[in-house]
Amino acid sequence: MHFVNNSICSPDLAVAKSQELWFRELGIRIPRPLGHGPSRFIPEKETIQVGNEDAMMHALFAESFATLGRLDNVTLVMVFHPQYLESFLKTQHYLLQMDGPLPLHYRHYIGIMAAARHQCSYLVNLHVNDFLHVGGDPKWLNGLENAPQKLQNLGELNKMLAHRPWLITKEHIEQLLKTEENSWSLAELIHAVVLLTHYHSLASFTFGCGISPEIDCEGGHTFRPPSVSNYCICDITNGYHGVDEIHTSPTGSIPSTESVCEVEALMEKMKQLQECRDEEEASQEEMATRFEREKRESMFVCSSEDEESAPTRDVSRHFEDTSYGYKDFSRHGMHVPTFRVQDYSWEDHGYSLVNRLYPDVGQLLDEKFHIAYNLTYNTMAMHKDVDTSMLRRAIWNYIHCMFGIRYDDYDYGEINQLLDRSFKVYIKTVVCTPEKTTKRMYDSFWRQFEHSEKVHVNLLLVEARMQAELLYALRAITRYMT
């Protein structure tokens, strides 16, 4: 579908109107964006407006446009944090376009497979276009069963990584590497694993920040004429009542006493926990008990809006076993041993394995993990000069705890002090079942914080999730190799 740019640059409105009428007489339909801005959760006026960006942001926009051929809405939301965006774009460009073990069309197809596991039609549609652009066979898009057997064999690893990575064993790795005709090399498998984890976690960001489709994508445009009030009766019948209602949010509005108190209470808890740390340290036994308790409690964190939804055929055709989804790892009496970071960590084991088999990617991922984990502006809502490291570590470690990953030197008792239930619901939903994320969930946590701070939370969720998936996959590969 070819679109005419409807933001016609003319000093004279009458000229613009006559051009529009001329297009109509020619039978050219002019699309309008369905949404307002890059995110359904963040009011357009509170995002970084193209044309108002600083020099660094402008350079990032140019880089994104040069590599992707478009300025996508993920970039327009991530640019709240330019340092992270620069690392993200560099890593994604390397994975998709630079020299590597996998051919270009395989890379995009794996991106489609990964995004489809979470029904993320936004990412699926982007990579369908990219897949065709680099010469991919259109028949593969009719369903995974039409792709080469080698890619079909990756389906099992894709679903386990996306939903239950703790189940991955060296036997799963062996099946992929030892299938005679359609076997993967170790280097190819590392490339595929990094792509799968990248797009699982990017699906989390897409849903967690309410990313809207671009105007040229499915679901991003309409050909209905605008009415005087900028929406018509068909909008109302579809539940849309205009931009003001859609973006009503406590964030950025006049501070309510209750939400201001929430910020103050959180800062007070951080101060008290720091004082307790300085005074006494819990025993190793107590620390282990607190981890197990938090891991057990995380199973019961679920949203009242949680319900099963069947994926659409358009998305589900890109993967098998549509009923396979996230399950808490110790449900139904099934016990999975705790993954101790002291025994296998990204820094000491995963990083070197990735770098050895797919040069430079370990370094790029390591830089991205560190930027997300250490990123701070020393602010919390309206407060400045605040050390937020305790809060950032609690968020990161809570995500890893949900995956059974334990840090021996961390007191998991801090998590319940710092993360309230609405925040835990949001984290677990975005990380484990991102397709179920709602604007209500986004609005209900950290009500007095800036949108940029909520996007920052999503960066932590994205990178902690990606690292958790990688740890399980890379440990299984290491066990196969030894």
Question: Short description, anyone?
Answer:
Helices cover 55% and strands 2% of the residues. The protein is built from 22 helices and 6 strands.
Fold and architecture overview:
- This protein is mainly alpha-helical and 482 residues long.
- Helix content is 55%, strand content 2%.
- It contains 22 helices and 6 strands.
- The protein has a two-stranded antiparallel sheet.
- A hairpin with a 2-residue loop joins strand 4 (379-380) and strand 5 (383-384).
- The protein is globular.
- It starts with 12 loop residues before the first helix and ends with a helix.
- 38% of the residues are buried.
- Mean pLDDT is 83; it is low at 1-12, 227-254 and 306-310.
Percent of residues in helical segments? Answer: 55-70%
Low-pLDDT segments, ≥5 res: 1-12, 227-254, 306-310
- Strand adjacency order, main sheet: 1-2
Order of helices and strands: HEHHHHHHHHHEHHHHHEHHEEHEHHHH
Number of helices: 22
Average pLDDT across residues?
83
Number of distinct beta strands: 6
Topology:
Layout: H1 13-25, E1 32-33, H2 55-68, H3 73-78, H4 82-97, H5 104-116, H6 121-133, H7 149-153, H8 155-163, H9 170-178, H10 186-208, E2 221-222, H11 233-237, H12 243-246, H13 257-279, H14 284-298, H15 313-316, E3 339-340, H16 346-357, H17 361-374, E4 379-380, E5 383-384, H18 389-402, E6 405-406, H19 413-418, H20 421-432, H21 439-444, H22 451-481
Parallel strand pairs: 3-6
Antiparallel strand pairs: 1-2, 4-5
